[in-house]
Amino acid sequence: MVAAAWLARFDIPVVLIEAEAEPKTDWRASTFHAATLELLDELGVAEQMHAEGLRVPIYHFRDRTAGLVAEFDFGLLADETPFPYRLQLNQQHLVRMLHERLRATPGVELRFGCRVTAVDRGPDGAGVELRAADGTTERLTGSYVIGADGAGSTVRHALGVEFTGFTYPERFLIASTSVDLSRALPGIAEVNYVADPREWLFLLRTPESWRAVWPVPPEQDEREALAEETLRRQFQGVAPWPEGYPIIDRQLYRVHQRVAGTFRVGNVALIGDAAHINSPMGGVGLNSGIHDAVDLARRLGRVAEGGADVEAELDAFDERRRAVAVEYVQADTQRNTERLRETDATRRRAAHDEMRAIAGDPERARAYMRRASLLESVRRFGIGLPPGRAPEPAVSAPH
């Protein structure tokens, strides 16, 4: 949706192909970081997002036994970005906002209920084979194909691109409740990473609910893990609540750390989970996917205007976005996850001491928050900068 909306800004005709019959409403990612909000503000959708979302400037790193370990404040970045916080808003709301806009945007064709079954490349463009819900098929051709079709990407498979990395042995379970966990656990922040050698936790608030993430052992049956009784018992283990915990959403999924061997083959490109997938610890998967989309769209915009070399632009997209995926997204989410699930007591204490030291030093905390907000990767690599051009130094921004 972001890629289509951004390409439309350059008056580039777009056909958006989606297998589902309509925009999905299931709860997925829910965090938008400062660097992403800057891009979405440029797209003209940030104001509506803020009207519906929840601003969270502070988050906690906690230990399930010891309590608060370190508090981090995105407000330290107030002179660098107009958005010194995480905006909590479930992903489907941004999709809805963009869908409403794209339906009324000239040059954008939305093809819902159609599945891409094959991709082919030629010297002057690329094509996809489509199958509609009624079984009819057709072929579409264009100048470029962008595969934003998730971890199981048909486009990536059609290109024969490797998706190297690993899968965590445990599955992650996300459950949401209408109970206000800040009442059950006084003193917690609205975003909390909670370390524990047996069952770490990730607790965060969204406008609709409080959400918890915890690991599910490989041997536990999926039906048992998702059962109402199990989830209510899990929440009671997080914080006793005599009235019980209503469960309003649940998802169980496998978590991977993987990166595609290349983000482009000819005039076919991969973005988002089709190009890289990671642990949710840090809330950067959705954000980095949006950065991929904008980076690529800006490059194709320059090519369409006739002043840029397509090979150089697509090579720069591949090089820079893949570097961000490996050096930031993969590295940081893996480190965050391992810190939460560490079982060795000595290493746990060392990790906690390091987090306290970072939070206690304003300059180190500032650098830490700059990286967590993705501002560091954007300042270093830019988003869609012309090949060979270095990012401009960061400047203060009013807020």
From TrEMBL:
Sequence ranges assigned to domain FAD-binding in this UniProt record: 1-330
A Pfam family the protein falls into: FAD_binding_3
Coiled-coil residues: none
Gene3D superfamilies reported in the protein's UniProt record: 3.30.70.2450, FAD/NAD(P)-binding domain
Keywords, comma-separated and alphabetical: Oxidoreductase
Gene Ontology MF annotations: FAD binding; oxidoreductase activity
Name of this protein: 3-(3-hydroxy-phenyl)propionate hydroxylase
Organism field: Streptomyces zhaozhouensis
